[in-house]
What does this fold into?
Amino acid sequence: MALPLPSGLVPNEVGFLCEMESVTVVPRQRLDTIDLLSGQTPTLRPPYRANLPLWLALLLKKQRRANIVPPPWLHPDSLRGVIHHEVKVDPLAFSPPPPPPARADARGNAHHPTRPSAYDDVALSPPFLSSCTSDAPAGALPYHWFEVAEILLAHAADDIPSASEVRSLLRDLHEIRAAKMRKSTADLEQGVGGVLHLRGVGAMELAESRAFILGVVEGVRRLGASAEATRREEEEEGRARDEDEDDEDDDMFG
Amino acid sequence: MDIDDILREVDPVSYSIPSETRDLQALTRAWVAERSAPELLEWPADGIFERVNERIKKQIEKIEDMTGDMDPKTNFALIVIQTELERFKFLVRSYLRARIAKIDKHTLHYLSNPTLRARLSPTELAYATRHQALLHNHYLSSFLSSFPPQLQNLNDTAGNISMIDSPDLDTAVFIRLLRDALVEGRGTDSDGAIDGKAGDILILRWSSAKSLVESGGAELA
It folds into this structure.
């Protein structure tokens, strides 16, 4: 009954999550709208494009009912740009994530669905950000980039222009970023601050190295537990002493 | 339907997120959070699971109605509906199982005081109490009864050591910021703070991240 998996998402679960990403399809057959638990699907009429969740797009693709439009960031030029950024521009950090999506309303305001607004207390986050549709920006990797790219290459390679080139570029990118991921724990040598920053990292990269990174952080914490306790006590004492001195000052002036 | 619902339908800004997507987002977020957090989280108060379960039940009834109809067109729609249903059932089931795993591990801890008990749903509370009673009775009948009476409890706190095991709240977690925020974390050598932007992924202790996650400023990743 109880779930035997370790804490934190495992790669299979990340794969399940990424199948909720929206992708753009070009239908080859008519398909009426279907009432799903996650809302109605758009009516598919060739040759009009529509956005569907990845799992449904794959189902349609396998039955030859639709073709998938690869997201702009999966284009070889975009991937080469990202690799250039990772290697030359900023060899220490990951390349920046795509800018938060914005949508216009009727009153001339730009609206950001990632931020909670007055009516929506729910802020959207991946995989619900439409960062893999044909409107997504090129030149930046979304959170589920690796999984989506792998799935599209495996099941819809004929829809991706120059698929073999994309495949080899992805492999390069994955290796460059995996090296950075391992290096990020080297920061731990110069003492552990409270927060570690991993801007632009992908979901699968996190899942792959979650056990390693958390293991390192945990190990360092256990080793330093007594030192930390001493430090906190000293800080407490210092603070108490400061307050005493303040009180004395007050007495003097009071 | 109150005035907020009407506004929501008229206003293009808030209408951009339909209620089904909001529910799925909330469900997914709850699942990821429960899978990643070292301790049991609050049972969602807004009734999302009751709502989703109700809709799953309705969808199953609809499938039963549709299976009689063997028209090839509805047939494909049926496959799609069933696939999606399985995905929803997986989410709900995995969420509940992750919670049961945590309850099983630290049963007495979660039953020990009213604040912790309030995190459990009524069904989970019934499960935890009965399971704990059964287990203790089994221990009593198999070996505990031959011990002296003062050693037969499972919740001794004598000698400043509590028998009740509790989850380690200082375990490190990954979070994603949902809005720009100054994130403070306790560390071994020094306490740090980072000026985070929305969408950033951070690693810090759950004890430091908890308030930010509960206020909706971040989610577990």
